[in-house]
């Protein structure tokens, strides 16, 4: 290494790469704003449909705009026959994130205007993906249980219908509310790895379906969205609260990363965790599962006292989805259904002021040399 070697910011940690007006993640105040509104207030007062509109358009919808959007969303929920066939053709062992990725690809292939990046076209596509993802996620969980597709119901809102299509029965209002809160909290988080992936793809002037497909791939990993699924595997492995401390000691001794803890930006706790934890508490009470909350608290207490590393949103979200009856493998696809709003908003923001994203690398391989004769 010479003095001229540029500083490398591994993982782009701490490097601002562009402006965004969509959300503000503030680790100093442990806060998160969507278009200026605190996420906790949106989670307590708004439907997921309203939050989606806010993230795309920058303002909350008027009553007439919301009514129009809800009617459009309800009319676009059913899967096209070739999307359904493609899901049916996938092995039952296919990871549900791969099912989502494949289904989004086919939805893109069905769109004759897939390559048209005009803002009104991309808004239309964003709304279509928003309406379609619950059917994909719900149907995939059902087919893994040997159950048939449940048709969407236009008299139910987005969150009610998602649960209806998954379980084939109307969910209790308390469950619908906890689910809606999780979607609002998961909808957007600035330049996280999957959103950045979507922006990189958009920056080449590729299409929005390709950007979302790539983002799904990035979200799948356990260091990002895949952590909500991994948290549940951890809970299954530990079994009960009294075993949490010993389990953690052993896991840390083998230098394992404890899933659902830590964050690249928040170092003093994730702004969304208190709200999601309240939703988990409500579900633990609703399903009479205090043991789940006890295990949650025991592992958190042990991790904070041992490493001073706090939980991220995936930590309370995983057990909440488990209590609702979702398969563990379905947790990250639910994150897809929520985050598709943030991804598509970022694709549109990227295109509105585009520059090809292409950083530099510093070569550290062998010097130029002659080919062997
Ligand atoms: C919605 C989301 O995507 S939120 C993130 C979901 N991901 C997870 O929950 C996976 C578990 N967490 C992690 O792997 C990390 O905390 C990340 C990837 C989220 C953030 O990582 P980074 O900002 O790169 O922090 P980094 O990995 O450098 O950690 C700093 C130190 O804390 C430790 N650390 C951070 N998170 C954890 C964890 N979950 N378990 C154990 N140790 C941890 C690291 O080992 C490292 O220690 P060292 O300095 O002794 O080597
Ligand atoms: O911001 C991040 O790096 C990860 C995260 O919490 C999210 O995407 O919600």
UniProtKB/TrEMBL annotation:
GO terms for molecular function: citrate synthase activity. It comes from the Bacteria. The active site is at residues 263, 314. Pathway: Carbohydrate metabolism; tricarboxylic acid cycle; isocitrate from oxaloacetate: step 1/2. It comes from Microterricola viridarii. It catalyses: oxaloacetate + acetyl-CoA + H2O = citrate + CoA + H(+). This is Citrate synthase. InterPro entries: 2-MeCitrate/Citrate_synth_II (IPR011278), Citrate_synth-like_lrg_a-sub (IPR016142), Citrate_synth-like_sm_a-sub (IPR016143), Citrate_synthase (IPR002020), Citrate_synthase_AS (IPR019810), Citrate_synthase_bac-typ (IPR024176), Citrate_synthase_sf (IPR036969). The keyword Ribonucleoprotein does not apply. Keywords: Transferase, Tricarboxylic acid cycle. GO terms for cellular component: cytosol. Belongs to the citrate synthase family. GO terms for biological process: carbohydrate metabolic process; tricarboxylic acid cycle.
